[in-house]
Specification:
Length: about 150
């Protein structure tokens, strides 16, 4: 599978998250051979835990599954630009690539806001690819928040 195909699977998972009342964000850790090591969606509401972002859950699951703390040969793929917390977690896990769908001008931490990977003090700089399947990823979030308002 390529990045676009993996993102389609994440969009479907994010849709399930929305139906469960979670902000529709999904993330996966994919190894160098294209195998999915973990695939999670936000669980902030279900766990009543502000840190239960899809990226953190996916990183934790992949590390546990491998019995390793670093994921240097892996890609973190996520439907929304990671926030500063999740970008820092990716740096600490030494993830090789970060691929995301929709940009997040309000809370993003990669291309917006904190721009975690652009600081000299960042522990690790992954390859960053934004805008993969951006339109459907952004539409999912827009629809979710519009339904909450109206």
């Amino acid at each position: 599978m390529n990045d676009s195909e993996h993102m389609h699977a994440l969009i479907a998972l994010a849709e399930r998250a929305a139906r469960a009342g979670e902000v529709p964000v999904a993330a996966a850790i994919i190894d160098a051979h294209g195998a999915v090591l973990s695939m999670r969606h936000n669980e902030v509401e279900a766990r009543r835990d502000a840190t239960a972002h899809a990226e953190l859950l996916a990183i934790q699951e992949a590390c546990a599954g491998r019995g390793e703390k670093y994921l240097t040969d892996c890609t973190l793929m996520v439907t929304l630009e990671p926030c500063a917390m999740c970008a820092q977690a990716a740096a600490h896990a030494k993830i090789g690539r970060v691929v995301f769908g929709a940009y997040d001008a309000k809370s993003g931490g990669v291309e917006h806001g904190a721009r975690v990977f652009s600081h000299a003090t960042c522990h690790h700089l992954p390859e960053i690819i934004g805008g993969v399947q951006e339109t459907p990823c952004a539409a999912l979030l827009k629809d979710f928040f519009q339904s909450r308002r109206g």
